[in-house]
């Protein structure tokens, strides 16, 4: 199974759906979907509501292997079911979409122009649970807000330190050092970031395979050399807060770079839409992101 999934991620056309909003971003995602904050009172009810939204997306006929290679899940989504089947199993066995799991626990406060990942004391247990659920890979996010060489170096070193633990467990890590799209020196940050990533890739074992998730670069095709690097399965891009049309337009200028969009994927979906309307809007969104991902 893993060999088939690895081949799919490395060679097929399509993009990754990011369905991994966690505690901090979930209320905003639900509000966009038409579920106000006063409609749930506990965290469990909130996650039940967002799981219902994600299930509706995943079960839609528009959400198909023709356009979507993989989907990133939040831990609570992995632990829930769709039509009585564990979410990750449903994704692969029913849809042929490769399941990934978000493993980070959020961000530290801003220091040296960056936000490192918080400690993950239960990472090993989570990875073991992910393997039993048929998860293929993981994702973890840091944020870069300033072109601070020391801070960016720390971000990349931390990402690869955790990535090696994930690799040892038998999973494929998506390394995500996001450069804030509103940063005043975004392009300078990207130059430092790429150099630090190249250094860390050179230190991996020959058999190690990783993925990279980055902000759409200021200069088109800036990460083209990393896309061809021997350890790299795929380089994917987040929408970073851009509206879908702008994100698609910027992405389409980067040959071989594919989307891993969250808000840009679901921005026009609403709880009150009929299934036909929901599926039509989701299908249109998916096709547009797909077209931008195959340039």
Protein architecture, described:
The chain is an alpha/beta fold. It has a single domain (2-293), classed as Aldolase class I (TIM Barrel). It is built from twelve helices and eleven strands. The chain has helices at 2-11, 26-33, 43-59, 75-78, 87-95, 123-132, 149-169, 186-201, 224-227, 244-251, 263-266, 275-293; strands at residues 15-19, 68-73, 81-82, 85-86, 98-102, 114-115, 137-144, 172-179, 210-215, 232-238, 258-261. The two termini are 28 Å apart.
| Biggest sheet details | 8 strands, parallel, barrel
Listing every helix as H and every strand as E from the N terminus to the C terminus, the arrangement reads HEHHEHEEHEEHEHEHEHEHEHH
What name goes with the CATH superfamily?
Answer: Aldolase class I
CATH class categorisation: Alpha Beta
Count of individual helical segments: 12
At CATH level 3, the topology is TIM Barrel
- Strands side by side in the biggest sheet: 1-2-5-7-8-9-10-11
Radius of gyration: 18 Å
Kindly state the number of beta strands: 11
Mean pLDDT: 96
Helix content percent band: 40-55%
CATH architecture: Alpha-Beta Barrel
Low-confidence stretches: none
Structural class: alpha/beta
Shape: globular
Number of structural domains: 1
